[in-house]
């Protein structure tokens, strides 16, 4: 059954329609992960870090390795994606890390 489901997603003639991809990681991981959330839309990826409320913005079309943070240069795009991410977190009732998770 799993192979049939995977085949559906791997078939190039089919796609999933969505406006953006979202990630949410509200805790520390045992392999060094930090609490954060992210959104990817139209070749752009914004990452939000809970520890210091910092954001990073990447143009994945030209910087797949995420080496050049454009958050300060592309302020309008950063604000738009951050707003969209925060709205998604709120509408999905995503768990946000508390002080205990961050300290």
From TrEMBL:
<protein>
    <submittedName>
        <fullName>Sulfatase/phosphatase domain-containing protein</fullName>
    </submittedName>
</protein>
<dbReference type="InterPro" id="IPR017850">
    <property type="entry name" value="Alkaline_phosphatase_core_sf"/>
</dbReference>
<feature type="domain" description="N-sulphoglucosamine sulphohydrolase C-terminal">
    <location>
        <begin position="11"/>
        <end position="91"/>
    </location>
</feature>
<dbReference type="Pfam" id="PF16347">
    <property type="entry name" value="SGSH_C"/>
</dbReference>
<dbReference type="InterPro" id="IPR032506">
    <property type="entry name" value="SGSH_C"/>
</dbReference>
């Amino acid at each position: 059954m799993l192979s049939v489901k995977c085949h559906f997603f791997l078939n190039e003639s089919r796609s999933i329609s969505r406006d953006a991809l979202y990630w949410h990681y509200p805790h520390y991981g045992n392999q060094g992960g930090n609490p954060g959330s992210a959104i990817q839309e139209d070749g752009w990826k914004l990452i939000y870090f809970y520890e210091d409320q910092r954001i990073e913005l990447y143009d994945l079309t030209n910087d797949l390795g995420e080496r050049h943070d454009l958050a300060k240069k592309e302020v309008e795009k950063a604000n738009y994606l951050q707003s969209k991410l925060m709205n998604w977190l709120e509408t999905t009732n995503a768990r946000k890390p508390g002080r205990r998770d961050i300290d």
